[in-house]
Specification:
Blueprint lengths: L1 E5 L7 E6 L2 E6 L5 H9 L5 H12 L4
Parallel strand pairs: 1-3
Antiparallel strand pairs: 2-3
Amino acid sequence: MISVSWEWSEVPQLVVEPNGDGLHVRAYPGLSESQVRRACEELGEHGPTVFEAWGRAVGIQH
């Protein structure tokens, strides 16, 4: 399971952390789709799933 929450910060970022039985994503609300896509590419096998969870959270259907 992947949960997503919004976090305002000095530096816009996407942070992925293990969370019990899944992952927790903390994302800066102003990140663009391309910024999130690039960040997710660096996550390896979890990248596509994290990108889908972020997309659902912001209302983007892929």
